[in-house]
TrEMBL record:
Its EC number is 2.7.7.7. Keywords: Cytoplasm, DNA damage, DNA repair, DNA replication, DNA-binding, DNA-directed DNA polymerase, Magnesium, Metal-binding, Mutator protein, Nucleotidyltransferase, Transferase. It comes from Alitiscatomonas aceti. This is DNA polymerase IV. It catalyses: DNA(n) + a 2'-deoxyribonucleoside 5'-triphosphate = DNA(n+1) + diphosphate. The gene is dinB. Mg(2+) binds at D9, D105. Poorly processive, error-prone DNA polymerase involved in untargeted mutagenesis. Copies undamaged DNA at stalled replication forks, which arise in vivo from mismatched or misaligned primer ends. These misaligned primers can be extended by PolIV. Exhibits no 3'-5' exonuclease (proofreading) activity. May be involved in translesional synthesis, in conjunction with the beta clamp from PolIII. Binds 2 magnesium ions per subunit.
Length: 411
């Protein structure tokens, strides 16, 4: 039996939620933007009225206002976006239990076994009408025989539309589209392909395996399979929990960091949250990764292994800082810092110590960090802090809502 896969994409999600909650915004050009004071002053989402003026996601607020003088700037309300994302998935759950999120506003649905409810198109159309009636939001849906083409279909017509890509006619429908429209073909991959005259999905589908593997590695072979409609990846069940692959925390500072001491303070604050999440997920970190972006928006990343897997924020901070001090050249001040715990182990996984590890000292630090964590849990995150963190900080106020990404990274 041929699969029937839907991809539902909520149109201009953040901006649509804001306009629905505040009807006065409905016919105005609206952009949801980060805080200028905390240096997140970019467009996160915009409605179609703003898009008509050329406002685009990712550009600075001042650039957007140059294009649209009457642009209404709205701050993000993540708790509302999470709420409406959940409500939408409850609607999807009326048709199937195979619902795989792809971010907050997109989901794949496998409705292969839902034939009694109609064809794939009929189910998609009923979902589209239900979401509009019950939530006041619009979606675009793609209907196809695999996840990749369903995703492609949802992008082809917007807003409030449905596109079907059938197995017997997909070549005529999508091979003429730009290769960059295909999931898995990012900007860097697109640049490589275009450099060799490969511009469309059809041209990608006809390119030799040896050439793609040579230029793009395994990803080259994967995207060729996608272009030829050979994706058989399953849609996960709604109760499926993606394995946690890394746990990270990052911030853009309110002012540039100008020396090692300021970077140390930021890292020390970031790892407190990482330690909390490691304990919550019963994991220990076997490695640390850092990402540093300077004030010219150039990013460098480094990572290293940790000799003994740990949950200790202190140990993680020291490892991250040593990695930073060893590799970063102070040519420019630093704008943002991200720390991630990687190579995760189960909390109760046996550990082989070497002859040079001070096990007693490590055990004391672990027990001290556990006690600190208990105090923070009972009396709040600011109940106990490292003394150095009480000085004037360049840290922004914390975001109230944690987002769990579909990639398995928690941040």
């Amino acid at each position: 039996m041929q699969r029937v896969i839907l991809h539902c994409d909520m149109n201009n999600f953040y901006a649509s939620v804001e306009c629905m909650l505040n009807p006065e915004l409905k016919n105005k050009p609206v952009a949801v933007c980060g805080s200028v004071e905390e240096r997140h002053g970019i467009v996160l989402a915009k409605n179609y009225a703003a898009k008509a003026f050329g406002v685009s996601t990712g550009e600075a607020i001042w650039q957007a206002k140059q294009k649209c003088q009457n642009l209404v700037i709205v701050e993000p309300h993540y708790e509302q976006y999470m709420k409406f994302s959940k409500l939408a998935r409850e609607i999807y759950g009326r048709y199937t239990d195979q619902i795989e999120p792809y971010g907050m506003d997109e989901c794949w649905l496998d409705v292969t076994g839902s034939g009694c409810m109609g064809t794939g198109f009929e189910i998609a159309d009923e979902i589209r009408r239900t979401v509009k009636f019950e939530l006041g939001l619009t979606i675009s849906a793609g209907v196809s025989f695999n996840k990749i083409f369903a995703k492609l279909g949802s992008d082809m017509k917007k807003p409030d539309a449905i596109t079907c890509i059938e197995a017997d006619s997909f070549r005529e429908k999508i091979w003429c589209l730009p290769a960059s429209d295909l999931l898995g073909v990012g900007r860097a991959t697109e640049n490589v392909l275009s450099g060799y005259g490969i511009h469309t999905i059809g041209e990608l589908a006809a390119t030799s395996d040896d050439f793609l593997k040579c230029r793009l590695g395994k990803n080259g072979l994967t995207i060729k399979k996608y272009a030829n409609g050979l994706d058989d990846s399953p849609v996960m069940r709604s109760d499926y929990v993606s394995p946690v692959k890394s746990i990270g925390h990052g911030i853009t500072t309110m002012q540039d960091l100008e020396n090692n001491a300021e970077v140390w303070c930021v890292m020390l604050e970031l790892v407190q949250e990482i330690g909390t999440k490691l304990r919550a997920h019963k994991k220990k970190a076997g490695g640390i990764a850092i990402s540093i972006r300077n004030n010219e928006l150039y990013t460098k990343e480094w990572q290293c292994r940790i000799g003994i897997p740990t949950q200790s924020p202190t140990y993680l901070a020291k490892t991250a800082f040593v990695l930073f001090a060893k590799n970063y050249q102070w040519e420019h001040p630093i704008r943002s810092v991200t720390v991630r715990a990687i190579n995760l182990f189960e909390e109760d996984c046996p550990i082989q110590y070497d002859l040079f590890t001070d096990v007693k000292s490590l055990d004391r630090q672990e027990r001290l960090d556990a006690a600190i964590e208990q105090i923070r849990f009972r009396f709040g995150k600011d109940a106990i802090k490292n003394g150095v963190l009480f000085q004037k900080s360049k840290m922004p106020t914390e975001r109230k809502v944690d987002l769990v990404m579909p990639t398995g990274m928690i941040g």
